[in-house]
Automatic annotation (TrEMBL):
<keyword id="KW-0238">DNA-binding</keyword>
<dbReference type="InterPro" id="IPR036271">
    <property type="entry name" value="Tet_transcr_reg_TetR-rel_C_sf"/>
</dbReference>
<dbReference type="InterPro" id="IPR001647">
    <property type="entry name" value="HTH_TetR"/>
</dbReference>
<dbReference type="InterPro" id="IPR009057">
    <property type="entry name" value="Homeodomain-like_sf"/>
</dbReference>
<dbReference type="GO" id="GO:0003677">
    <property type="term" value="F:DNA binding"/>
</dbReference>
<dbReference type="InterPro" id="IPR050109">
    <property type="entry name" value="HTH-type_TetR-like_transc_reg"/>
</dbReference>
<feature type="DNA-binding region" description="H-T-H motif">
    <location>
        <begin position="31"/>
        <end position="50"/>
    </location>
</feature>
<dbReference type="Pfam" id="PF00440">
    <property type="entry name" value="TetR_N"/>
</dbReference>
<protein>
    <submittedName>
        <fullName>TetR/AcrR family transcriptional regulator</fullName>
    </submittedName>
</protein>
<feature type="domain" description="HTH tetR-type">
    <location>
        <begin position="8"/>
        <end position="68"/>
    </location>
</feature>
Length: 205
């Protein structure tokens, strides 16, 4: 029992260290030695728990994905009003990705390499996003005249692209605008309110 607790504790220290390094350097810039140094252990011990950077990253990614996708599904399939769903979607998505900024770019890279395998692996039967109720809700609001005529697909794309793109383009924003980590994080916290306000104001009658 004591050894298992110790193993679990060491593994969690390694996972947290890896999260810190991946956030700072990204998946491709991080090295196993960086992670070992961050965790305060030697590289041999790190390899005892995780024999490759890819496996370590995959575990961290799956933990974050399993946290994010159910939350998104819960929002999209709730009985909340359309505007409230837009607000909650932005808040939930940005909250998770601020703490796991490598998620969007990693998803895009993996999807482009083997979309079928990746989607099955990440989503499975439980996590697969189901926007059908949300799309029907948009269509119903258009018919009722409460929002301006807009394609449900286009509205969904606007919502996704406005939340995802800043994280994918983070290095560009930081280099061209001179943003440090704190400033970028603060800007993304602001976007939790700015995105829904922009979208809702654009479709509200």
């Amino acid at each position: 029992m004591a050894k298992r607790i110790k193993d679990q504790s060491t593994e969690e220290v390694i996972l947290q260290a890896a999260r810190n390094v991946f956030i700072k350097k990204g998946m491709y810039g991080a090295r196993m030695q960086d992670i070992a140094d961050e965790a305060g252990i030697n590289k041999a011990l790190l390899h005892y728990y995780f024999d490759s950077k890819d496996k370590l990253f995959e575990k961290i990614f799956m933990e974050a994905a399993n946290h994010l996708f159910p939350k998104v599904n819960e929002v999209l399939n709730s009985d909340a009003g359309l505007f409230e769903k837009i607000e909650k979607f932005c808040d939930e998505y940005i909250t998770v990705v601020i703490e796991n900024p490598y998620l969007p770019l990693f998803v895009m890279n993996e999807v482009n390499q083997d979309p079928v395998y990746f989607m099955k692996k990440v989503w499975g039967a439980k996590n697969k996003p189901d926007p059908s109720k949300f799309l029907l809700q948009i269509e119903a609001e258009v018919k009722k005249g409460t929002i301006k005529p807009i394609s449900p697909l286009q509205l969904m794309m606007n919502l996704l692209s406005m939340t995802i793109f800043p994280f994918v383009a983070k290095p560009i924003f930081q280099m061209n605008l001179g943003l440090d980590e704190f400033q970028f994080r603060h800007a993304m916290e602001q976007r939790k309110k700015e995105i829904p306000k922009f979208i809702i104001d654009s479709i509200r009658k």
